[in-house]
Amino acid sequence: MRIDQLDTPSLLLDKDKMEANLNEIADFASEQRINWRPHIKTHKCLKIARRQIEKGAVGITVAKISEAEVMASGGVKDILIAYPISAPEKINRLSALMKDAQIKVAVDHVKQAKLLQDSLQGTPWELEVWIKVNSGLNRCGVEPGREVLQLAKQIANMPNLTLTGIFTHAGHSYAASSMAEIESIALTEGRAVAESAALCEKEGIPIPARSVGSTPTYKIAGKVSGITEVRPGNAVFFDAIQVGLGVASIDQCALRLLASVVSKRSGERVIFDTGSKALSLDQGAHGNATVKGFGHVVDHPEIRIERLSEEHGIASIDGETTLDLTDKVQIIPNHACTVMNLFDHVIVHRQGIVIDQWRIEARGKVQ
Fold first, then answer.
1. Cα(first)–Cα(last) distance of the chain, in Å?
2. Full domain range(s) for residue 89
3. Measured between alpha carbons, how far is 181 from 315 in angstroms, rounded to an integer?
4. Are residues 257 and 331 in the same domain?
5. What is this structure's pTM?
6. Residue 277 in contact with residue 8, Cβ under 8 Å?
7. Residue 248, exposed/middle/buried by CB under 10 A (0-12, 13-18, 19+)?
8. Chain segment 285-336, per-residue pLDDT in tens
9. Are residues 45 and 164 in the same domain?
10. How many degrees, rounded to 5, is the angle at CA 305 between CA 181 and CA 256?
11. At what angle are helices 65-73 and 46-54 packed, to 10 degrees?
12. ∠ Cα 123 98 344 (to 5°)
């Protein structure tokens, strides 16, 4: 079957484009002699996670315990939960998960560490923890340098916790207005981790993993001396935000939405069958202003999706368009991660010919 014969809306994954994107990350990590631990919140799919590991990833990164549970049940054995955990319900789930995989957990406060330690007190279990450093996003994370060292010393006195890493996420790179600004953010990102790790090691606290990542910055931050790992997520697919930032080209975008024209008013608008339940309302995180509208309609620069209701994508027409009722188009989403989370499966194709259908096992896993 050709992809243009599919019902709409359908989520499409170009396997060749994805493979090329994965090769680019793997090659970078190999050239720098560092590890690669992709963030799977972008794809939430076991087949893709396994493919990343086949290409050399040392493990994966997840945002939530529920994602880790899905990945561990599917055979992924090395997982960083890059999210602070302190609620008793989640700590109980974490204890169970430790039996199935090598888990690493983010901490950015001594109270979190104490709660984790208390839950493991008297057990034979040792939990790896990684300190989250704030490198400018001003979300989670302790400040680099002395705050990292202080927390590291406190963790060192907790017998069931082992500090094995320091990491950060420069998500504010998504708001950058130029590649020069992205480079500056990336260098700050890498130095925040590397210098904090060096300070800890000077005090006798070894830090084997020094991890950075974000799709816009990983190729720069990953070259900072002392960094041992990168964690790009979106780079498996890319999307309209990455194109707007100058990080990727339209041709590299592997994830697209197949949509149909369901209504048209000549000279004014066309309506696609892809509303907020298919494209999401995301126009970019952390102040990004590079995207216009709600997705890039491939090969139709005259069309801009101006509004989304739940089931309708309302697009304006700049001049004339050849699009008519029942015509199908491909739309590159603004943010691939949020769109992937809206679908149960993705249609995999090669040069427009359907070759498989992959479940998105961790979609909706937000706890």
1. 37
2. 16-236
3. 32
4. yes
5. 0.95
6. no
7. buried
8. 766 777 889 999 999 999 999 999 999 999 999 999 999 999 999 999 999 9
9. yes
10. 75
11. 70
12. 155
Q: What token pair was written down for 7?
A: 């019902």
Convert 227-244 to b/e letters by CB count within 10 Å (16 or more is b). Answer: bbbbbbbbbbbbbbbbbb
Angle between helices 15-32 and 46-54 (to 10 degrees): 40
Residue 291 lies in a domain: yes
pLDDT tens per residue, range 75-99: 999 999 999 998 999 999 998 899 9
Q: For residue 184, which of 151, 217, 150 has the smallest C-alpha distance?
A: 217
State how many domains the chain has.
2
Identity at 47, one-letter amino acid code: K
Q: Long-range contacts of range 17-21, CB-CB < 8 Å, 24 or more positions apart? A: 17/251, 17/252, 17/253, 17/254, 18/48, 18/236, 18/237, 18/254, 20/252, 21/235, 21/236, 21/237, 21/238, 21/252, 21/254
CATH number at residue 158: 3.20.20.10
User: Whose CA is closest to 261, among 320, 308, 315, 298?
Assistant: 315
Structure tokens at 66: 């529920």
